[in-house]
Amino acid sequence: MPPQQTKSLDVRAALKQGIHLLREAHVPSDTLAAELLLLHVTRRDRTWLYAHPEEILDPKIMESYFTLLRRRAAGEPTQHLTGKQEFWGLEFEVTSDVLIPRPETEHLIEVALDRLAVRVLRAGRDPKLTGEGLTIVDIGTGSGCIAIALAKELPAAKLYATDISPAALAIAQHNATRLGFPNRITFLESELFSAFSSSSHQSPVTNHQSLLFDLIISNPPYIGRKEANTLPTEVRDHEPASALYGGEEGYELYGLLIPEAARHLKPSGLLVLELGHDSLPAVRPLLESPQWTNVHVTNDLAAIPRVLSAERT
Ligand SMILES: C[S@@+](CC[C@H](N)C(=O)[O-])C[C@H]1O[C@@H](n2cnc3c(N)ncnc32)[C@H](O)[C@@H]1O
Fold first, then answer.
1. pLDDT in tens, 26-66
2. Non-local CB neighbours of 127 within 8 Å, separated by 6+ positions
3. Candidate of 97, 105, 108, 163 to mutate for ligand 1, largest count of ligand atoms within 8 Å of Cβ
4. Among 111, 145, 219, which residue has the most ligand 1 atoms within 8 Å of its CB, making it the best to mutate?
5. DSSP string, 137-203
6. Global pTM?
7. What whole-number distance in Å separates Cα of residue 284 and Cα of residue 106?
């Protein structure tokens, strides 16, 4: 339990008490969470934390710290309490309207950049990959982490990012602006590719319709609703259901996304998809068609098949 009186604690003692409180509540990565919350309330960085263990903390700061610790112990994700998460070396603002970017999603960026580089080499063009001439879309952008990471890596690419959730798009747009890419990405509210479909009755005719892409990249919702009870509280009760569940089984959205992607890619265009931990057996057969070639599976650091990528014939 936190102390009733939080005055006169030094940094070391505050951290120790925070870790203890979170450990008692079985919070995963308790030390990291306590550190991040202490850094958040003190507005300091990690170097300060360990360089000034004897510094006495202001009672008001301690009060905020213990309030956040109690909320974390009750299941709120650390990132919702600090409002941020790092991805691809960039600091993203996150709220309960978007999925918190996960480290394994960085493999999507790596695979996309590798495969684009191979395409450039095959075409005998300048191997320096700037993205010039490339049109790219991130389907289900959430916080914007994938599209913004690609904007950073491919300064000349034309980028689109879609989401079914207007609230998520507002966060993504805000992240793009604050991270220095205010006009690089066109954000569109869209059910999968509806914003790019000329047969769409929902959207007025725009110049986005009938676009064909060099790269379609997506981390779609892929958890099964039937697994909801097995999820940690911080995920099930705090992250948006539309970002988590792909259907009763989990892999249903891939069945819509992959055939639509085939219609929206240029010849030799690339599809790069994140997979759920057990999605591969259901999803890989969807690419066994003459429309697709060079299908690759990339494992994450935990040896889980995480990225499925393929080339449109
Ligand atoms: C797993 S989250 C991924 C968010 C972000 N790209 C990331 O990697 O952290 C999936 C996103 O897809 C969006 N989404 C769900 N169904 C969709 C659909 N049918 N069409 C477009 N976006 C959808 C959700 O709102 C959510 O933001």
1. 999 999 999 999 999 999 998 998 899 999 999 999 999 99
2. 117, 120, 121
3. 163
4. 219
5. EEES-TTTHHHHHHHHH-TT-EEEEEES-HHHHHHHHHHHHHTT-TTTEEEEE-STTGGG-TT-SSS
6. 0.94
7. 21
